[in-house]
Design a protein that fits this description.
binds FE3-S4 cluster, single chain, alpha/beta, binds S-adenosyl-L-homocysteine, OB fold (Dihydrolipoamide Acetyltransferase, E2P), binds iron/sulfur cluster, 13 helices, Rossmann fold, globular, five-stranded mixed beta barrel, about 35% helix, six-stranded parallel sheet, about 450 residues, pyruvate-formate lyase- activating enzyme
Length: about 450
C-alpha cells in the first residue's frame, strides 16, 4: 500500500532544497508526498532557528498534530513524526523531552540516513536523535533521482558557514563550510535540466565562498563553476544565493559581465550601513566596501538589480548608526530587500551584549527602513511599465487562464495565456506594476 509523507518547511532556500531531497530519500521506501499532515504516515517538520519564536512555533505545530497521530494509532495505524532542520540541530533532545511523541529529531547533515532512522522507529527500537556532523558528506549518499524539480530548481553547492557574525546561529546549526565537487554539481544540474528545469538557483549559506574540487584536481570558485554550468544545453538562467560581500571576488564579478545566463539580479546582504555596527557584527567589511563592490558589479553588468538583508536594532545601534543604514539604501538603490528586527539568539556573542535596544525603538526603525525600501521597490517595478522583458514562465497562476513567470530581476509577472507557455521564456510588455508583482501581455 502507498504510504504518505508530509513535509512542512520553514526558513531559507537551503531548507527548501533539503525538503525536496528528503522527499527523494523516502520515495524508494514507498512514501508519496501529501499536502495533508492529518492522514500522513510520516510527518517531517523542517525547521529554521534564525530568529526567536521558531521553537515555540514548532511546539504549537506539534501540539496541533498530536491528536491526528493519536487518532491514527487508535485506528490501528501509525504516524511517525520527525523534526528536522536547524531547530532540531540546536535543541536536540529538548524537543523529545517536551514532545515525547516525536519519533525522530535530526539535523540538516544527517537526513540521508532517513531510511535507517525510519527502520529503527518501525522496529520499535526507540526514538531517534541524530544531530551529528557526520564525516561523510550527505550529498554523496543522496539518491540521484530528483522528482519533478519544476521550471525553476534549487541546487545546493555549498553548506555551512565559517564567518561567525555575532548575531547568527547558522555556523552552529549548519557547521563548517563545505563545498561539493564540480562534477557532482554538474551531474545534478544536468539531471535537473533533463527533468525539465530551465532555471537553476545555486545555493549555499555562503555560496560565493564556494571552493569545490574541479575535474582537473584544482579548486574552482563560483565564477568558474558558472562558466561550466552555462555550457549545459537547455539551461537558460542561472542565479545564486546567499552571498557575503567579502567573498565577492573578481572572477565572480566578471562572470556577470561574460555570461548572459547569469541573471542581472543579486541578493547581497549588507545588514547595516554603519561601520561601528558592522564591526560589532563581525561582518569584516565597511559600508564603503559594500558601495565599491556594488560599483564594480554595475560596471560589469550595468542593469544589475540588487537585493539585501538588513537588521535594525542590533545592540548599541544609535540613531546615527540607523541613519547610516538609510543612507546606504539611498546610495545603492535596491530592487527589493528583507529587513528584520535584531533577535537575540542564545549562545551567540551579540545575545550577551549589554547594550540591547528597546523593542519600541526597533519597531520604529523597522517601519522607517521598510518604508524606504518599499518606495524603492515600487519605483523599480514602475520603471518596467512600457518595457518589453523576457519572462520565464513557471506555470499557471491561481487566476483562471493566467500564467505566472519571472523577469530576469526576479519580479513576479502575471499574464493571460495558455498552459503551454510553461517552461518558455517569452517577451512580455509590462502594463502595470504593484509592490510585489507586474502584469502585462505577450508581445507579438
Ligand atoms: N548567509 C546569509 C544569510 C543568513 S540568515 C548571509 O550571510 O547573509 C538570513 C538573514 O537573516 C541574515 O542576512 C540576517 O539579515 C537575518 N538574521 C540572521 N540572524 C538574525 C538575528 N539574530 N536577528 C535578526 N535577523 C537575523
Ligand atoms: Fe550567518 Fe554571517 Fe554566516 Fe551569513 S555570513 S550565515 S549572517 S554567520
Ligand atoms: Fe534558518 Fe537554518 Fe536556513 S536557521 S535560515 S533554516 S540555515
Amino acid at each position: 500500500m502507498q504510504k504518505k509523507v508530509h513535509i512542512k518547511t520553514w526558513g531559507c532556500q537551503m531548507n527548501v532544497y533539503d525538503s525536496a531531497r528528503m522527499a527523494d530519500v523516502v520515495a524508494p521506501l514507498g512514501f508519496a508526498p501529501t499536502d495533508e499532515a492529518a492522514d500522513a504516515d510520516l510527518v517531517i517538520f523542517n525547521t529554521c532557528h534564525i530568529r526567536e519564536k521558531a521553537t515555540e512555533k514548532l511546539f504549537s505545530e506539534l501540539g496541533r498534530l498530536r491528536p491526528h497521530q493519536q487518532a491514527k494509532q487508535d485506528a490501528g495505524g501509525r504516524m511517525m513524526v520527525a523534526v528536522a532542520g536547524c531547530v532540531a540541530q540546536a535543541e536536540g533532545a529538548e524537543i523529545q523531552r517536551r514532545a515525547p511523541f516525536v519519533d525522530m529529531v535530526f539535523g540538516p547533515q544527517t537526513y540521508h540516513q532517513l531510511p535507517e532512522m525510519i527502520a529503527r522507529v518501525t522496529r520499535g527500537a526507540g526514538a531517534v536523535l541524530n544531530t551529528e556532523f557526520p564525516p561523510e558528506p550527505k550529498f554523496d549518499a543522496l539518491p540521484e533521482d530528483r522528482t519533478a524539480p519544476g521550471i525553476s530548481a534549487f541546487l545546493s553547492v555549498q553548506e555551512g558557514c565559517d564567518k561567525f557574525c555575532t548575531f547568527c546561529v547558522v555556523p552552529y546549526t549548519r557547521g563548517a563550510e563545505y563545498s561539493r565537487s564540480v562534477q557532482a554539481i554538474v551531474d545534478e544540474a544536468q539531471r535537473l535540466v533533463a527533468a525539465g528545469a530551465r532555471e537553476i538557483t545555486v545555493l549555499g549559506q555562503n555560496v560565493n565562498a564556494f571552493h569545490g574540487e574541479g575535474p582537473d584536481g584544482t579548486v574552482w570558485g563560483l565564477g568558474r563553476l558558472f562558466h561550466r554550468l552555462a555550457e549545459i544545453d537547455g539551461l537558460q538562467r542561472l542565479r545564486y544565493t546567499t552571498s557575503h560581500p567579502r567573498d565577492m571576488g573578481d572572477d565572480l564579478i566578471a562572470a556577470h559581465r561574460d555570461l548572459p545566463q547569469l541573471m542581472p539580479f543579486l541578493h547581497l546582504p549588507v545588514q547595516s550601513g554603519s561601520d561601528a555596527i558592522l564591526e560589532a557584527m563581525n561582518r569584516k567589511h565597511t559600508a564603503d566596501d559594500y558601495r565599491r563592490i556594488v560599483d564594480k558589479l554595475r560596471t560589469a553588468r550595468p542593469n544589475l538589480a540588487l537585493s539585501s538583508d538588513f537588521i535594525v536594532g542590533f545592540p548599541g545601534e544609535t540613531d546615527k548608526d540607523f541613519e547610516a543604514s538609510l543612507q546606504l539604501i539611498r546610495d545603492v538603490g535596491f530592487a527589493q530587500a528583507y529587513s528584520f528586527k535584531y533577535s537575540r539568539r542564545p549562545g551567540t556573542p551579540a545575545a550577551a551584549m549589554t547594550n540591547q535596544i528597546a523593542e519600541a525603538v526597533k519597531d520604529e526603525r523597522l517601519q522607517a527602513l521598510q518604508q524606504l525600501l518599499r518606495d524603492q521597490q515600487d519605483a523599480f517595478n514602475r520603471s518596467m511599465i512600457g518595457q518589453t522583458l523576457p519572462v520565464l514562465f513557471d506555470g499557471p497562476s491561481r487566476r483562471e487562464g493566467h500564467m505566472y513567470g519571472r523577469t530576469a530581476f526576479m519580479q513576479a509577472v502575471y499574464v493571460e495565456g495558455p498552459a503551454r507557455m510553461q517552461g518558455h521564456e517569452l517577451p512580455v510588455t509590462i502594463t502595470a506594476a504593484g509592490t510585489n508583482s507586474l502584469t502585462g501581455h505577450i508581445a507579438v
